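Two records follow; treat each independently.
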Amino acid sequence: MYDSRTRMRTGTDPYWWANFPGDLDPIEHRVARGDDVPMYSQPAASAPIVERLSYDVVKVLADPDPSLPEDARWAQVELPDGRAGFVNDRLLYNPAGGFRMQFVRDGRGEWRLTVFIAGD
């Protein structure tokens, strides 16, 4: 993003953090981490696919069991249209957790870390 007033460029990582809808609770929602992320009817990759998500924001109805191996952790989620399903938790980004960063490129072309958030 470019600010013509300050002549500075900014960037965020992950980029969807900067675009997360302000009217949604980041504790209750997740963002699909890519294109064509499958949402299944049951918590199994062999179950029928309900929808394919591409950086979609979904509401979490039930968090996965953290005692399970990472590839067996399924979050029960709901789409804005009310359809529900399951997504492997490693394919979802938690906007209230994890690291978030913002960088600014100054007039000399140097990038500087200006914001660093670890968790909510």
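The next record belongs to a different protein.
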Amino acid sequence: MSQVVSKANMRFMRPMILALVLVTMGLSAPATSHPAASQRDYTLLLYCDWNYSGCYGAWFYSEEVTVVASYGQLDIFPGGSWGYSGCPDCMRMVENYGPAPQPVEGGGGEACAIPTDFHQVGSGTDSGSGTLHFEYTWSSSTGNKADLSACEMGERVSGYTANPFPSPPFKAGLSPSDPTELSFEATRDAEDNHQTPGPFVTPFTGATVTASQIYRYRCPCNNNNAWVTLMGPHDIVRTVTENGSGGWKFVISKSGSSATINPLQ
């Protein structure tokens, strides 16, 4: 339980001939890499082949366009402005592309909302029957949590030191998926309840099983929609030990908090 690489907002009017004009675009740079206070202007690239048999073009964010090679006639029109061209077809077609789109704030188009300030609310609590309860909350980079509707929050638990759990003392056949992965929409806060299916099995004996947990998010507009870790890893430790009174107890702990069943029966 626990967004994102912002693709450049491109407005294609006709297909580019990429075999002839190689253009590198800042598709992998996160939106926050652009100065927030600046505006992003557009540049119109028009390509005319050697024989003037065709003209192809597209709008790009100006700072995200670098011409690394060109063959034939390449014309660049910042903001769609007019300029000399050796290709009559392209000169005529500038009008067909219309005026440049309106400049937009740094970041490009709509802001890419991602979760920020992910944190635990208070301490973990023992909610009974060996369940360790946690609550988590976070904000949106846009200031509006509803903007995270396209994003997922999630948890990943992996690396169990014993799987299946030893039995006794744990329930026979207790074998969680490794990794265990859960996710949900990022517009709501999270509760995480760490439980251990029972019953415990006699004769009781000492045993410990540890797993590693992270909380994470992903958003279509960020990091190519790949998971980004927000918190962790931290250990979830389940232990059966003697209780000092002639019996046995179970303790589950994480992040300095624990829940207990004492005595085990």
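Discussion point: The longest strand covers residues 228-242. How would you locate this feature using only the token line?
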